[in-house]
Amino acid sequence: ILQFVSPFAFEAMQKVDVVCLASLSDPELRLLLPCLVRMALCAPADQSQSWAQDKKLILRLLSGVEAVNSIVALLSVDFHALEQDASKEQQLRHKLGGGSGESILVSQLQHGLTLEFEHSDSPRRLRLVLSELLAIMNKVIFFKSSELFESPVYLEEAADVLCILQAELPSLLPIVDVAEALLHVRNGAWFLCLLVANVPDSFNEVCRGLIKNGERQDEESLGGRRRTDALRFLCKMNPSQALKVRGMVVEECHLPGLGVALTLDHTKNEACEDGVSDLVCFVSGLLLGTNAKVRTWFGTFIRNGQQRKRETSSSVLWQMRRQLLLELMGILPTVRSTRIVEEADVDMEPNVSVYSGLKEEHVVKASALLRLYCALMGIAGLKPTEEEAEQLLQLMTSRPPATPAGVRFVSLSFCMLLAFSTLVSTPEQEQLMVVWLSWMIKEEAYFESTSGVSASFGEMLLLVAMYFHSNQLSAIIDLVCSTLGMKIVIKPSSLSRMKTIFTQEIFTEQVVTAHAVRVPVTSNLSANITGFLPIHCIYQLLRSRSFTKHKVSIKDWIYRQLCETSTPLHPQLLPLIDVYINSILTPASKSNPEATNQPVTEQEILNIFQGVIGGDNIRLNQRFSITAQLLVLYYILSYEEALLANTKTLAAMQRKPKSYSSSLMDQIPIKFLIRQAQGLQQELGGLHSALLRLLATNYPHLCIVDDWICEEEITGTDALLRRMLLTNNAKNHSPKQLQEAFSAVPVNHTQVMQIIEHLTLLSASELIPYAEVLTSNMSQLLNSGVPRRILQTVNKLWMVLNTVMPRRLWVMTVNALQPSIKFVRQQKYTQNDLMIDPLIVLRCDQRVHRCPPLMDITLHMLNGYLLASKAYLSAHLKETEQDRPSQNNTIGLVGQTDAPEVTREELKNALLAAQDSAAVQILLEICLPTEEEKANGVNPDSLLRNVQSVITTSAPNKGMEEGEDNLLCNLREVQCLICCLLHQMYIADPNIAKLVHFQGYPCELLPLTVAGIPSMHICLDFIPELIAQPELEKQIFAIQLLSHLCIQYALPKSLSVARLAVNVMGTLLTVLTQAKRYDIMSLLIQIGQVCASDVATQTRDIDPIITRLQQIKEKPSGWSQICKDSSYKNGSRDTGSMDPDVQLCHCIERTVIEIINMSVSGI
Question: Left (φ > 0), alpha (ψ -120 to 50) or beta: where does 1107 sit?
Answer without folding.
Answer: alpha
